[in-house]
């Protein structure tokens, strides 16, 4: 940690801060500069505790932390890439993995139809919501356990493992009965009791970035899960809120190589929710793989005009086939195989 | 709802959209413009359902919704100001109400000391966290039930009702045993199971705006609570995330008169979390009241340098006294009394 | 400056960086920490030059600057408040100064009517645009020199000094012939040739914050003007772009006390452009003064429904009178007189 | 245009608005809805003028514009792709075009060295700044005309056309003497006198998106140039400002397909300025081409540690060669040739 003093701080104030640092059990290193003095701190084994004691002392302008606040998720802690295995599916290895399916499980027939279609086109995991967080209380909120049962049936029928969103600690045991991987949605990225509970569940987790979360916030949220002994976490970039209203969210693909550099966890991208428009899904799916993402999660619906949720961003199966062909070409250019 | 057609959409495409609108049971009103045609829809009793059917038709450029998505919270539904009563304290009436207390309950002595200090300075409700959502899993997360007991004791000692944050459905019954008002924190503003549960609890709720939530999102979150039959909701502006890194968040005081115009619910402001700096609390507290806020929620600590949480934004009691004097002067200028 | 090394950087890499710092003529101070080493630099008289030499060395994670990049505008350089005088009007002293007038000079009659109205209500400076930057090339762009002449006539008629926007170096001499104070608009805040030219002109300058500018960016833009020997600069907060689309911009009132702390220059607020709605002007005008602003710049139009520009945010004279009364009450609460 | 009435607006208010619309020479179409009435307007040949007359009438809640504010740049006005030719280089055709060179022209030797290196690696146009807009007045601002002369010499030596930034109307004639294409920087995207002047110059223009500009703002800025009779405009996405401080800017690749859909103009991407880090340039260059960009503009320096400007984001020639190889593989996957 570095304590930056104000320009007008005199020797007495500087010495008082040094004395306080010593009283905290650390070693101060005053460094006079052209306009102000900075004081380095050494001797700490982790983040400097009670730093507020320093922040509020006379003459102190700013504290600058050097130690990053997360640990288990960082590449400094664990240098190699972590592989997350979900049945036969692997995230974080050489292969590009595609998760696809409807936004919401609406009916048995709808889900099976879409599951077969995406399986045939090359997806290796099925997505589908049984519990849906919706901005409006009057929107459709999912079929609940009935939806989970349909997903399990689709798994039997297609052999694909199933991922679905879990919204609270109360329904977590029920979701675990049916799902192979648990999704934490963007609105719950900082729901800490839920993060802890999915950590303890031992199930693989897909953690979506909150739409106002920095990359650091996302890594700290993942740290909650790893801190419970569960390292099977896949991160997901899905768009952030910005001033630009052209699209629903701004897909932050620069986060993909940054996360790869800061962390050992796999990263995938959700091009459907980022834009909210089906015609943006293909270019953004290609760009995500070119940026280095380990996979995609994509919404598909055979009759999107009648979808109960997010129909405007769902691909019809034919477009999904086209997307898979284009993504495969980009994966080849990246010297990565498609998972199969 | 208005369907905007593309500039090149021909008569056949326009007629097809009109036919679909009729098939949905509504009435289309085509309006040719200089570059494109727009089609108005009437005959709907609520938001147009299955609008995606229209959005994906050939030649359709955009759908524009006219009906606002919230209802119970809107001033159109309920014209007069709602008063929220918590014991002797009223939000939304002429008086300006100040909630104050420590960020976190640390010890019995700390909480009682601060409670007496803020009471004496004119606060009428006590705040204090027993369960703390923290960005890092390694930070202090609160005393839990022990903290709630201390808050209850502080209520006995000072006569002030107590507000504290509830973080999940599981601990809600325990929090309700001790608290007079429930706080939903910014990170949980879109935790819908929790919103529903506090709605059903019947307790008064302080709903803090998420730091990436629009005013509309905040009103929709409140709609979840009101939809459970609980209209005792106070809204709280506490800063949003923007590109500017000068302060921790950007306090959006323009939201205060906007919410007052759109909704009948009381609005207060949290100047402590918005900036993360104690020296910003006084000017922003004054500005909030001048903008029309019904009150404030402020962090106070008698020894902030040693606070376990957010010490850098806590006022010492003397500064809080100064704040109360300044706020009282602004309230007088607004022709509002201070609650007592 | 502080050089933060990567966690895995070994002694050889650390020594190489220290050697490079010595070769640059500075003194390195290595400080080993729990996870990584940081190296402080002293001996520099200004910002460390060629810091990129260090940034690209093996094992270097990050450079952290301690010295702030602006100088002449900083309170550390000049502790007392700067007073900016424009004829009889003073910015930055105890009095609250109100600039008012039409968005655009449309006709002689319109400008004189509004000038007399705002003068009578207590404004002490007249605003009005003769050259208007407009997002669309098809919008009205102002009367040019004819507009300047009308402004000068309004000055004669009312005794108020006149402020108007200057858009480029080419028209600066013409604007200087008529105006008493030059306005740099938000879109030109980083138009450096223009900043330099108004600096050299010696005229007092009102510098509006760009809607994507941080407080630091604004201070650096002002530094361009001061660096030409012109310290008569008034800063103006007018709203920034954020994800929230409730209003046109988000007024960042927290910037007011921050600027007062970092700089000696006066600060005023533009509540008209921030929101784009006349019904937001009153509450935001009050809040700005309560936050500590030295004044306001407000748009007034006697017939806003027919205004050629920004009619939706202009106050009618009666509302402006009401605003002045309310602002005066807040100023009294702040123990500041209104300028007269 | 659609006029949305307030929920409580009665028949008299609705009729008054209809009467006003008729008085303006247009035709009103009232459409009663479940909670409020909306009134469509037809009969206008362009954007409805003096809409403020309606906005300020009693009972009016909101005006919604249907007609897009730009025209010449829109695909509705001109359906086919525009090709912009600069000497032998074409933007907007099948080939992917790479512009490369130093951030700033520092010396003759530096520029020639880099020019030869990027030429050999496959770049077809040379970039280099002679006039540099810098946030700080104390930073290096370029060599001016001497820099332009060096660029012209590099053109002779390599055969590549030259692009350089023009900062103001005053130096435009000098820049035109030496340059083949004019760059408008992000900070000048809304410098309207400059946009008009480069429009009149007849030179091809590279218009960089302002870091707080929406896609619509960018298209309107281009409209200024086209409106002067100059359609040789290439648009450039270079990152926007968001709350995330992980990187300097957030590259908005979703803008690429959106611009392609809304406009006929070519679009390229600047991966160097977006992130401010050289190690982000390769992944973002690949992603940009995969998203459908027509080319890239990239900073290269043979000795970036000693670069006078932006060294931390410049690629060394070897990394640029690697980038070209990777980009070529992505271009192949997109079935596009690299320009040569």
Record the SSE blueprint.
The structure is a homotetramer of 340-residue chains.
Chain A: E1 2-5, H1 11-23, E2 27-32, E3 37-42, H2 52-55, E4 60-64, E5 84-86, E6 89-91, E7 97-101, H3 108-121, E8 125-127, H4 145-158, E9 162-165, H5 172-178, E10 181-184, H6 192-201, E11 205-208, H7 215-226, E12 233-237, H8 255-262, E13 267-269, H9 271-275, H10 281-291, E14 295-299, H11 317-333
Parallel strand pairs in A: 7-8, 7-14, 8-9, 9-10, 10-11, 11-12, 12-13
Antiparallel strand pairs in A: 1-3, 1-4, 2-3, 5-6
Counted beta strands of chain A: 14
The CATH class of the largest domain in chain A is identified as Alpha Beta
Second rung of CATH, namely the architecture of the largest domain in chain A = Alpha-Beta Barrel
- The total tally of domains of chain A equals 2
Give the uncertain stretches of chain A in residue-range form: none
The largest contact between protein chains, plus residue counts on each side, is: A-B, 44 and 44 residues
Name the average pLDDT of chain A: 93
**First-to-last CA distance of chain A:** 48 Å
Tell me the quaternary state. homotetramer
Q: Portion of residues in helices of chain A?
A: 25-40%
Rounded to an integer in angstroms, the radius of gyration calculated over CA atoms of chain A is: 24 Å
Described by strand count, sense and barrel closure, the largest sheet of chain A is: 8 strands, parallel
CATH superfamily (homologous) name of the largest domain in chain A:
Aldolase class I
CATH topology of the largest domain in chain A: TIM Barrel
Structural class determined from secondary elements of chain A: alpha/beta
> What is the count of helical runs of chain A?
11
Secondary-structure element string of chain A: EHEEHEEEEHEHEHEHEHEHEHHEH
Strand content of chain A: 15-25%
